[in-house]
Recover the amino acids of this structure.
DNA sequence: TAGTGGTCTAGACCACAAA
DNA sequence: TTGTGGTCTAGACCACTAT
């Protein structure tokens, strides 16, 4: 059976299991094979199997019940954006048309306030990128983002029109670590309102995001003002 | 040294390490002891040490960097509520005065719409609880919550004034599994506005929460309308 | 090159769910 | 009672960081 071949790591195994889940292979029972069966099927250790299941569980795709099995969770409804782990809006919506309209792209020097936010020295060089982001031609958010030039030596409008995260990961070789978000209520500026096709002063869910590399250094901060109708979010978490 | 004694599980070890972090023991280096040192200090296996660190990392308290060490993350600022894992607002703010004013507490039968939300049959008994929640005497949210009577056989106003989650966990012996949240923009009803001391029609961050037991069964759903000034949220996530 | 976290194998026992 | 996931020990090697 084809899924027996060539599994070498928990991430690879997680990917294969995700595939089988999405193909509906387990929809009858609603459960994954048992750990012992997966050990047998993929010829890996229990540690590896448990690691793969932990990856899927952290992503909210399955939930293990002791003594009973690993259950596939209900489908997440379609139109929501994940809060928490994200590798960029483009990766979040693989089968949707994601567009970014670059309003501004400039290399600036951090003033006192920005330096504090970026954990850098005053005067350090920072890319400032303002974009309107839309999904399936619906405006989603007005984003103001800053990137430390130390880690992103080059940037242009064409790159900013696409996925900056994919650029940083694939072309610059940066490895992402974790990010902090703060969510609160904000209000649209005139320019944000114009681009989102709303009115100045309209309320917006505002997310401040600080993103760190795997070495713990901040490389990117951003402020997103989300369209109050078009943007919804979901979060799936363990309570244990 | 006192921290060497009596560690039997990753959760226990995580608790002890958290204590040492909060006491500032590692503030000089910003790093935890190495895995090998922790193995030595607590006389446990590497697996156990790694498990404890994973618990802290999942909670956003530390971040491990391969080849370098396990770093303590910056303090989370004070006044924010966690999105993602939560065991109730009371547990989230251990050193604040959390009050709940019960507006309504009734045992009802699920209509078609509620039955769908609660994953139960039409006509099943459900507790409906409406509360104004406040932290340090500031109104935070207007909450409408439903609890399946199947899992919560008894409820009264006194219990609802306190922590329903503590009641369910400690007195009813329920074990929580995971929860799904949907975050979007909402608008205050007249009653919600009155209680939150805002105006009808004011915007509010709205969080719909479905909470499941560790056996995968939904036991509680709720809708929270948050005060747009008093309520802010944070989320810390891994990007790996 | 040495130190440190990441992954993996192999094997054991425990806690909980379901029959 | 049996099956299944949760935790733990012991030991090994790999990948990345820092020097």
């Amino acid at each position: 059976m084809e899924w027996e071949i060539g599994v070498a790591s928990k991430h690879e195994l997680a990917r294969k299991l995700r595939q089988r889940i999405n193909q509906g292979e387990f929809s009858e029972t609603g459960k994954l094979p048992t750990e012992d069966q997966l050990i047998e099927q993929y010829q890996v250790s229990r540690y590896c199997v448990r690691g793969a299941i932990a990856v899927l569980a952290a992503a909210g795709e399955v939930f293990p019940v002791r003594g009973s099995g690993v259950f596939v969770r209900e489908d997440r409804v379609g139109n929501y954006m994940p809060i928490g782990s994200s590798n960029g809006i483009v990766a979040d919506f693989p089968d949707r048309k994601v567009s970014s309209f670059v309003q501004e792209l400039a290399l600036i020097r951090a003033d006192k306030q920005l330096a504090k936010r970026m954990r850098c020295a005053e005067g350090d060089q920072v890319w400032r990128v303002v974009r309107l982001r839309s999904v399936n031609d619906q405006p989603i958010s007005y984003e103001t983002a800053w990137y430390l030039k130390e880690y992103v030596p080059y940037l242009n409008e064409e790159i900013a029109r696409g996925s900056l995260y994919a650029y940083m990961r694939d072309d610059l070789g940066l490895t992402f670590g974790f990010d902090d978000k703060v969510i609160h209520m904000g209000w649209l500026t005139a320019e944000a309102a114009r681009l989102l096709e709303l009115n100045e002063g309209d309320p917006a869910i505002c997310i401040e995001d600080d993103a760190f590399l795997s070495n713990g250094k901040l490389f990117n901060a951003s402020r997103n003002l989300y369209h109050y109708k078009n943007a919804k979010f979901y979060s799936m978490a363990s309570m244990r």
In short: Residues 1-6 of chain B have pLDDT under 50 and may be disordered.
